[in-house]
Design brief:
The chain has ten helices and eleven strands. The N and C termini lie far apart (109 Å).
């Protein structure tokens, strides 16, 4: 039997992508990424068994050590469980859920779903933000903060945030490690109130792909926005790239159609008007 025939007979799901043996990177990383893609696309559902090491050897035409390196990489990402006697089983991929209309509180949102987020600070350094950030914060004297948020060992968000150095002169990587940025702002006497946000789908570049353990060009959800305090001071301008296993919850409300006002609404307005007129008359009589 030819290698192609063996691959077709043993292949459990979908079509196996060929390996690029000329400059495509380590073979074990290519195999890991192919299986990762099948898991994310649900071609391999949680609880299902991966092909055995022998089957993967035949499918990809590689040695057992290469296959084991690929499976070890998937295990390190928390995507599979390697069980003695059962082989490798697809694990349930954790999903990060967050509310679009809620500013901050990502740790609390994750905790509400029985999850725990941790934060790793990559860098904190003086850096001028893009023009949109300058407009939002009203200053070029800012810290640029880069952080990665994790669910367990799985990276789920990469954050790039600018904050005014005049407000927060003592921010350091050590201070921000596994800490709430908004909580630290409150500790410095500033109360975050919220601000406009927008979400859009973007393609991951190579740096983002490496940080979030996804394939280059894979779609990510980018959340952009500004957080202000009650007085309108810009406290942060941020970009947050979310991995594909993120769900944004939106509480949508049906608005009253323009030009159509209910009779009950009219009645309440008339009663309110009468009450105000009565109180004004009382005040005028008392002032005479």
């Amino acid at each position: 039997m030819s290698l192609e025939s063996a691959e077709a007979a043993a292949e459990p799901v979908g079509r196996i992508s060929p390996l690029n043996r000329d400059g495509g990177g380590p073979l074990h990383a290519q195999i890991r990424d192919i299986l990762h893609r099948q898991i994310v696309d649900m071609a391999l559902s949680p609880g299902s068994s991966l092909p055995t090491e022998e089957e993967l050897q035949r499918q990809f035409g590689v040695s057992r050590s290469v296959v084991r390196q690929a499976l070890s990489g998937l295990s390190d990402l928390g995507l599979i469980r390697r069980q003695r006697g059962r082989g490798s089983v697809v694990a349930s991929t954790p999903v990060l859920r967050r509310h679009v209309q809620r500013a901050g509180g990502l740790d609390e949102q994750a905790a509400a779903h029985g999850q725990r987020l941790r934060t790793h600070v990559i860098s904190v350094e003086p850096s001028e933000p893009p023009q949109a950030g300058i407009d939002a914060l009203g200053t070029t004297n800012t810290w640029q903060i880069e952080r990665v948020r994790y669910l367990g060992d799985l990276p789920v968000a990469f954050m790039r945030t600018w904050v005014p150095r005049d407000f927060f002169p003592h921010f350091t990587a050590e201070l921000l490690e596994n800490a709430s940025l908004l909580g630290l702002m409150r500790d410095h006497g500033y109360q975050p109130a919220g601000g406009p946000r927008q979400v859009q789908a973007v393609s991951s570049d190579h740096d983002l792909a490496r940080t979030l353990n996804v394939n280059a060009g894979e779609p990510l959800l980018l959340l952009q926005g500004v957080t202000r305090d009650a007085l309108g001071h810009g406290l942060e301008w941020f970009n947050v790239w979310h991995s594909p296993n993120t769900v944004f919850d939106v509480d949508a409300q049906v608005t009253t159609q323009p030009g159509r006002i209910s009779q009950e609404h009219v009645r309440r307005l008339r009663n309110l008007t009468q009450q105000l007129e009565s109180e004004l008359a009382d005040l005028e009589r008392g002032g005479r």
